[in-house]
Every structure is written in C-alpha cells, then in structure tokens.
Amino acid sequence: GYFENLGVSGILLSPLNSNPDTSSRESGLPFRKYMGFDGSWPIEPRLIDKRFGTEEELKLLVKGCHDKGIKLLLDFEGRYTHTEHPYYQSNPDWYETDDSYWGELFLPKFNYYSSRFIKQITLDASYWANKFDIDGFLNNFLPNIPHEFSRYYNQSLDRELDSKIFNIIRSPMNFNSHSEFISPAEFDAQLNFSLY
Predict the structure, then answer these.
(1) CA-based diameter of the chain, in Å?
(2) Could you tell me if 150 and 144 are in contact, meaning their C-beta atoms sit under 8 angstroms apart?
(3) Residue 168 to residue 178: CA distance in whole angstroms
(4) pTM (2 decimals)?
C-alpha cells in the first residue's frame, strides 16, 4: 500500500476525545470565539468524538496498521481539559487554581500533585491502549510535571499493559530539551514540533 511504499513504520493520530460542539470565547481582547477542532479540548476521558469516527472504526484502523507492520500512536491530552469535562465538574482539586492552558479559563490545567488525578489519568491511558491495542502515546504533559508523576504514570502503564508501551513526551512549542524525563523508568523519547 501507499504507506508501505513510503517506508512508514508508525502513524500518530491527533487526540480523539469528545470535544464541545460549541465555541468558547477567549478571555482577552478581542474576545473572539473559537473551538477545539482536533480532539484537544476533551469533555470526556474515554469517548471518541463522533466527528472522528466510531470505536469499531478505530479498531479496524489499528488492525489494518498492525497487519502491515505499522505502529499506531495516539496523542494523549493529559495537560488540561475543557470545563465541561466530568473531572472538572466533580474533582476541582485535580486542577490548578491559578493556571489555565493558553490563559483561557475554559481550559483548566491539571494538578500533577493530586494523587487521585495521577491514578485516574493513568487508568485513562491504559483504557485507550487496552481497548484499541494502541502501541504508544504522545503525551501532552509538559511543562512543570514532577518526576514522581512521570515515573508513576510510565511504570504503571507498563505493569498494567504487561508490556512496554512507547511513551513520548511532547515539549511545549519551543525547542527546549527535557532530556531529564527520558529514562527507562520514565518516557522513551521527546517530540518537539514548533510550527509557529
């Protein structure tokens, strides 16, 4: 097939989580309205946004990739959610009280020191890997995660999945290195794609 002829050995999908169907207004001037388009404004931890397909279609995609020797990785949004997310509604202590993504109040950032959050986000990643046979994740966690979180998350996933899953940590939109998180006990690699 096409990808095989190109020598592709892995495919990275954008986040697939359900996103709001409506737009949100930015916090500062000029107060434009915009919306998440790529699954990165999650409102559900384990539901595929209907705009991206169904669970059965994802399973077929993964199987098709594996049948051709291609690994499939999923962009896993673990840095923030939308305020419509059930975690934000029922567990406000899982979130930073004074920080949000892009400075937008409707995208609160997670608190990586909350032990209940750490366990839940690990269970969510395990769910995606187990249910859909995902080979790895591009994890959107940086900046400011503690090593305790990084070790727990990676080692728990390896134990839960009874295998080594390929875990990449995504850098913020700059060219800073975060090699201190790359080790056998933490992440396998770092990816940085500053496009702006």
Answers:
(1) 50
(2) no
(3) 11
(4) 0.90
Number of other residues whose CB lies within 10 A of the CB of residue 37: 11
- In this predicted model, what pLDDT tens digit does every residue of 52-78 receive, in sequence order? 999 999 999 999 999 999 999 999 998
Backbone angles phi, psi at 161, to 5 degrees: -90, -5
Spatial distance between the Cα atoms of 4 and 191, rounded to a whole number of angstroms: 23
Q: Are 146 and 112 spatial neighbours (Cβ–Cβ below 8 Å)?
A: yes
Evaluate whether 165 touches 158 at the Cβ level (below 8 Å). yes
Place of tokens 């892009």: 102
Looking at residue 83, what DSSP letter applies?
T
- Distance (Å, rounded) from C-alpha 9 to C-alpha 17? 24
The answer for residues whose C-beta is within 8 angstroms of residue 119's C-beta and 6 or more apart is none
Phi, psi (degrees; rounded to nearest 5) at 59? -60, -40
